């Protein structure tokens, strides 16, 4: 998952509607960072965004739907995987991009808040799943290209390989609460690549 862009300072063209959405999503992210999902209130978001409460309630309805729209926006802002020319560099870039995202004070706090919310709120879980499904699919194209070049065995499951790169990073971030640094990220990429070259990711998940 490529380093995800901060929402701050981005306003899509399209007039007042687009500006209102950008302001509300910016405020949503600010509130998530400061208060977490449990402290995310529609009224506070509206006040912070300088938008009428009725507009926020009418367009989004619930705090969970604000988070869903925020995750959609973050996914749309994310840069595509780089054309590195080789699967070694591509997986390393993937690991380092995840590292950059989770260690970013603002973006990392956003993800941690949504991950925490996803454990008990189905709408938050759906938003998080949609975000990562999209990013994994984009990076899986890099794996498919590597298979086409003969760098990886035929039948290598791209999404599963991409998940394997970032899984150790998120385990440390969310479960054990350990620091995640560049050494950890590069080792995760190298180990996933070694497993892929040995055929560990051939076939469908669970097959």
Automatic annotation (TrEMBL):
Residues 41-60 bind DNA. It comes from Nonomuraea glycinis. The keyword Endoplasmic reticulum does not apply. The lineage of its organism: Bacteria, Bacillati, Actinomycetota, Actinomycetes, Streptosporangiales. Residues 18-78 form the HTH tetR-type domain. InterPro entries: Homeodomain-like_sf (IPR009057), HTH-type_TetR-like_transc_reg (IPR050109), HTH_TetR (IPR001647), Tet_transcr_reg_TetR-rel_C_sf (IPR036271), TetR_C (IPR011075). It comes from the Bacteria. Signal peptide: none annotated. GO terms for molecular function: DNA-binding transcription factor activity; transcription cis-regulatory region binding. This is Transcriptional regulator. Pfam families: TetR_C_11 (PF16859), TetR_N (PF00440). Keywords: DNA-binding, Transcription, Transcription regulation.
């Amino acid at each position: 998952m490529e380093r995800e862009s901060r929402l701050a300072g981005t306003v899509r063209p399209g007039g007042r509607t687009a500006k209102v959405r950008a302001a509300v999503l910016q405020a949503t992210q600010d509130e998530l960072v400061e208060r977490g999902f449990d402290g995310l209130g529609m009224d506070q978001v509206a006040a912070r965004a300088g938008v009428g409460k009725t507009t926020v309630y009418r367009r989004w309805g619930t705090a969970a739907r604000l988070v869903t729209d925020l995750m959609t926006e973050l996914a749309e802002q994310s840069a595509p995987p780089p054309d590195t020319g080789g699967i070694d560099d591509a997986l390393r870039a993937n690991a380092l991009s995840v590292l950059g995202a989770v260690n970013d004070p603002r973006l990392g706090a956003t993800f941690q808040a949504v991950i925490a919310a996803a454990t008990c709120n189905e709408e938050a879980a759906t938003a998080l799943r949609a975000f990562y499904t999209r990013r994994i699919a984009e990076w899986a194209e890099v794996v498919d290209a590597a298979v086409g070049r003969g760098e990886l065995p035929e039948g290598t499951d791209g999404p599963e390989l991409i998940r394997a790169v970032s899984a150790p990073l998120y385990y440390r971030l969310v479960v054990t609460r350990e620091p995640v640094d560049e050494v950890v990220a590069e080792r995760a990429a190298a180990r996933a690549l070694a497993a892929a070259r040995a055929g560990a990711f051939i076939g469908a998940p669970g097959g």
